[in-house]
Amino acid sequence: MTCRVAQPGADPGTWLAESTVHEGSWPAHWARWVQARSGAAGRLPAPGDGVRGESPGPAPGRYVREK
User: Which residues make beta-bridge pairs with 2?
Assistant: First the structure.
């Protein structure tokens, strides 16, 4: 995958001519960036570990029908 970086503009040809090519895949770069700025991984809460200690139930959930 090739990624190009340049200032946005009205003319695509100018954008392409002025852009800088970066070889590689952006998701891998993004994942490294995010991991470097993230805390330690922890366990996910079990269903029912919410604020009220209960499961929101099946989709679309009770909150959709609450007023």
Answer: 23
DSSP state of 52: T
**Structural domain boundaries in the chain:** 1-35
Q: Which residue has the tokens 């139930």?
A: 57
Classified as helix, coil or strand, 18 is helix
Chain-centre distance for alpha carbon 43:
20
Structure tokens at 6: 């340049």
Distance CA 16, CA 34 (A): 28
Residues 2-56 have pLDDT tens digits of 566 656 666 888 888 888 877 777 888 889 999 999 988 888 777 666 666 666 6
d(CA 35, CA 58): 32
- In the structure encoding, which two tokens stand for residue 57, read together? 């139930």
